[in-house]
């Protein structure tokens, strides 16, 4: 039998401290558990139990909520919600666009979850099971925006403000529609959503409708699909008058992205350097209360192109209208 | 099994098929009017796409043939060593960081570097363990592929919506290439890889009998196996770089041809290059014309058209012998 001294320490010393086998992993596990429990012990902010607590699952819905003056009721937002920047930065993220994460969502104790499209339809059933009302707010098309604002206003008790905002939008859209039909010049535009992937929008996409109001024609209008992958051969046969890049271009002049690429370089729009982007991409692609700002950007862009092309037919290279 | 004379007979319609694919397009059937800039560009696009399709199809088919022989596994295909996952991660990183918008060459470069780094990693790990045995290689490839796929999922979960769309489309595979230098570079690399595999055709025949038997027949397996793996996987990596992930070609073309031409790699590899290339060009022609102007992923067509034929062969002749 071994003496006790040989059992108690690796170096044979009876007094040398020795961590029992598996001690470190257990210690790490306990620390991790303590860390997790600390989250459970977090003090809940004081709140009025009767007060409405909204969670938005889309950035355009978040904008609508703030537009009707109900921003104070918002307790959860998506990672994509970035406007109004200062106000949303204080609101906890409870999911991605159309994809609420259940645990953070439950943690903010919402009374209503607002959605316009959910990535997984089963999420609604799961939220219903948790007795959290899911409110569907159709807000993907241009004509749906005013009604979505009124719906959110009615839900949150801000009907007056909502009616005012919706009426302004409706009046702006109607005026633009009348102007567009009176215009004689309607440039044919390729709406391009990525530099590395040929994706464009069909006739029902919000940006396509907005472009129509501004006086342009989306060459993808022949498709019922919202967004689709097109072939360069089709693009060459369409030969659009101009290309509108709806992505953040890392280069100063977006035409440089295309002028050395086979196929693209043969397009009239590239040869005439009629390739543009807009300063604020969200306002032209997000169906929300800022749609008139987006419309104004597109109108300015088309007017800039018209002036530039009509005057010289040769672009200077800089493509941002000011 | 076909005799050499019959194989030559089957090669006759291939130029006509390729010419048909050159004439077919989403804008209509016929040779574009090359006197106009648009017509010239149309022909250039179709030609570039045809060459890319042929080269990628040849690369995937030959790579599949070689890997099935070296790994002695009927389920082996060009992506078995994880190059597809590595290439996907490389491409996704380039898209997510915005580098892909700077130059059209950034995306294929990122994909190729990711795929090549994965091959290097798998070979290093396999070499450190018990050597280049089939099971070690397959397991290492599967584990490396799974880890890289997980990293890709992590990247996708943090990427912006627009980047997710681009990554998803890249993953679905497309043969649309807009850079002639890229097509030339990839074609050269693939031609060299296929050439190296053809030179090692006798070695592949010997390896089909097992590594030990091949060693006894005079094959320097410790040298030949890594060289064949590198050539086959580099061909696949180059294909991934230019076209994304196109599945099924590297699995079904080698098996179908083995049924028709036999397992002799001196015949099988050139046939795989020619028939595999033609098969992918035909599938791509369908992908770009069936629902024009919408383009469907070419991988969908390869699976839906090649799959039933492969199942027919399987049900008619039973199992999948490699010899």
Any overview of this molecule?
By secondary structure, chain A is α/β, with parallel strands linked by helices. Chain A folds into 2 domains: 108 residues, Rossmann fold (3-Layer(aba) Sandwich), CATH 3.40.50.1980; 127 residues, Rossmann fold, CATH 3.40.50. In chain A, 41% of the residues lie in helices and 13% in strands. Chain A has 13 helices and 12 strands. In chain A, strand 11, helix 11 and strand 12 form a beta-alpha-beta unit. The termini of chain A are far apart. Chain B is mainly alpha-helical. Chain B has one domain: ABC transporter involved in vitamin B12 uptake, BtuC (Orthogonal Bundle). Chain B is built from 14 helices and no strands. In chain B, helix 8 packs antiparallel against helix 11, helix 12 crosses helix 13 and helix 12 runs parallel beside helix 14. Chain B is globular. Chain B starts with a helix and ends in a 6-residue tail after the last helix. The model of chain B has no long low-confidence stretch (mean pLDDT 87). At the A-B interface, strand 10 and helix 10 of A face helix 3 and helix 7 of B.
């Amino acid at each position: 039998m071994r003496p006790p001294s040989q059992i108690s320490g690796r170096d044979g010393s009876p007094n040398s401290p020795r961590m029992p086998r598996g001690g470190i992993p257990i210690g790490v596990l306990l620390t991790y558990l303590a860390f997790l429990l600390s989250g459970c012990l977090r003090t809940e902010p004081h709140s009025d139990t009767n007060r409405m607590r909204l969670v938005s699952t889309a950035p355009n819905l978040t904008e609508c909520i703030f537009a009707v003056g109900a921003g104070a009721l918002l307790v959860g937002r998506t990672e994509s919600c970035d406007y109004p920047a200062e106000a949303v930065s204080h609101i906890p993220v409870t999911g991605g666009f159309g994809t609420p994460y259940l645990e953070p969502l439950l943690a903010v104790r919402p009374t209503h979850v607002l959605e316009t499209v959910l990535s997984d339809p089963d999420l609604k059933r799961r939220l219903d099971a948790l007795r959290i009302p899911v409110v569907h707010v159709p807000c993907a098309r241009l004509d749906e925006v005013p009604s979505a604002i009124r719906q959110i206003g009615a839900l949150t008790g801000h009907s007056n403000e909502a009616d005012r905002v919706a009426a302004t939008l409706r009046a702006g859209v109607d005026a633009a529609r009348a102007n567009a039909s009176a215009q004689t010049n309607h440039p044919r535009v390729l709406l391009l959503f990525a530099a590395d992937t040929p994706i464009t929008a069909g006739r029902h996409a919000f940006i396509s409708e907005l472009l129509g109001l501004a006086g342009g024609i989306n060459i993808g209008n022949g498709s019922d699909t919202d967004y689709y992958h097109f072939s360069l051969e089709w693009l060459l046969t369409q030969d659009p008058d101009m290309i509108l890049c709806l992505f953040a271009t890392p280069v100063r002049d977006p035409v440089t992205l295309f002028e050395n690429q086979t196929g693209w370089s043969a397009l009239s729009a590239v040869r005439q350097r009629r390739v543009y982007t807009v300063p604020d991409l969200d306002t032209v692609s997000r169906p929300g209360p800022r749609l008139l700002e987006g419309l104004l950007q597109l109108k300015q862009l088309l007017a800039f192109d018209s002036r530039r092309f009509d005057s010289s037919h040769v672009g200077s290279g800089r493509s941002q209208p000011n | 099994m076909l005799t050499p004379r019959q194989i030559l007979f089957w090669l006759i319609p291939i130029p006509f098929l390729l010419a048909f694919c050159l004439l077919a397009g989403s804008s209509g059937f016929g040779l574009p009017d090359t006197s106009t800039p648009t017509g010239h560009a149309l022909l250039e696009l179709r030609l570039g796409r045809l060459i890319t399709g042929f080269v990628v199809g040849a690369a995937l088919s030959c790579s599949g043939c070689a890997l099935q022989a070296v790994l002695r596994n009927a389920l082996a295909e060009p992506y078995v060593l994880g190059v597809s996952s590595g290439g996907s991660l490389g491409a996704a990183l380039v898209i997510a960081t915005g580098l892909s918008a700077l130059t059209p060459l950034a995306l294929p470069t990122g994909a190729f570097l990711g795929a090549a780094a994965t091959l290097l990693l798998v070979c290093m790990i396999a070499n450190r363990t018990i050597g280049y045995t089939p099971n070690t290689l397959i397991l290492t490839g599967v584990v490396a592929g799974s880890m890289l796929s997980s990293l890709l999922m992590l990247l996708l979960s943090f990427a912006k919506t627009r980047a997710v769309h681009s990554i998803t489309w890249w993953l679905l595979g497309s043969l649309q290439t807009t850079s002639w230098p890229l097509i030339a570079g990839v074609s050269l690399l693939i031609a060299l890889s296929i050439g190296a595999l053809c030179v090692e055709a006798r070695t592949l025949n010997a390896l089909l009998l097992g590594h030990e038997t091949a060693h006894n027949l005079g094959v320097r397996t410790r040298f030949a196996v890594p060289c064949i793996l590198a050539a086959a996987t580099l061909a696949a990596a180059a294909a991934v770089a230019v076209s994304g992930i196109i599945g099924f070609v590297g699995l079904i073309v080698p098996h179908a041809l083995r049924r028709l031409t036999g397992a002799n790699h001196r015949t099988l590899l050139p046939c795989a290059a020619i028939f595999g290339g033609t098969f992918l060009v035909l599938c791509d022609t369908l992908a770009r014309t069936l629902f024009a102007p919408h383009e469907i992923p070419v991988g969908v067509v390869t699976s839906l058209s090649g799959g039933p034929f492969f199942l027919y062969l399987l049900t008619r002749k039973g199992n999948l012998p490699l010899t």
